């Protein structure tokens, strides 16, 4: 089933200072869980794989940098969201240039043995860099961190 709604970009209450979009339905009724839900979303016509996360105020989507760079909206603006549960298993895709550099530093195995959420976070940190020099510096910092493990 596809859920379609308009929602305002708000700040998540609590310690995490994230911009979020709240899911206006009960995740428990819609998906049979109060936990995380892997979803596919369309935000203002742009598609993303994402995760619906629980909070005391209901489930929400993080309005992350990848979405912001595409839709160009900020805190207080409204987004049009279409959301459906992702039924197939999602795997982390490691960009070839990152995999090859990690392999060259002999830490690809250590990287791949980490939990998926950590791998995604590390890849996103590298990919969000605007300059190649920054990407390279982030990869070098990651290789150093992985060698210490």
CA(first)-CA(last) distance: 43 Å
CATH superfamily of the largest domain: AF2212/PG0164-like
Strand content: 15-25%
CATH topology of the largest domain: Elongation Factor Tu (Ef-tu), domain 3
What is the second-level CATH architecture of the largest domain?
Beta Barrel
Computed Rg? 17 Å
Largest sheet: 4 strands, antiparallel
CATH top level of the largest domain is: Mainly Beta
Major sheet: arrangement of strands: 1-7-4-5
The overall strand count is 7
Unreliable parts: none
- What would you call the structural class? alpha+beta
Give the % helix: 25-40%
Please, could you describe this protein's structure?
The protein has 149 residues and is α+β, with helices and mostly antiparallel strands. The chain folds into 2 domains: 3-85, Beta Barrel (Elongation Factor Tu (Ef-tu), domain 3), CATH 2.40.30; 96-147, no CATH class. It is 36% helix and 25% strand. The chain contains 6 helices and 7 strands. It has helices at 27-31, 65-71, 96-104, 108-112, 116-127, 132-147, and strands at 3-8, 10-11, 19-22, 37-43, 46-52, 60-62, 78-85. The strands form 2 sheets. The chain has a 4-stranded antiparallel beta sheet with strand order 1-7-4-5. Strand 4 and strand 5 (46-52) form a beta hairpin. It starts with a strand and ends with a helix. The mean pLDDT is 94.
């Amino acid at each position: 089933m596809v859920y379609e709604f308009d929602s305002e970009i708000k700040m998540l209450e609590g310690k995490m200072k994230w911009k979020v979009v709240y899911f206006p339905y009960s995740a428990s009724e819609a998906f049979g869980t109060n936990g995380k839900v892997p979803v596919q979303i369309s935000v203002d016509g742009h598609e993303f794989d994402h995760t619906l996360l629980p909070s005391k105020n209901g489930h929400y989507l993080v309005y992350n940098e990848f979405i912001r760079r595409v839709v160009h909206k900020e805190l207080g603006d409204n987004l049009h969201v279409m959301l459906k549960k992702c039924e197939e298993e999602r795997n982390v895709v490691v960009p070839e240039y990152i995999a090859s550099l990690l392999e060259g530093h002999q830490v690809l195995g250590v990287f791949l043995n980490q939990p998926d959420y950590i791998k995604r976070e590390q890849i996103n940190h590298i990919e969000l860099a605007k300059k190649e020099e920054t990407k390279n510096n982030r990869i070098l910092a990651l290789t150093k961190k992985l060698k210490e493990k």
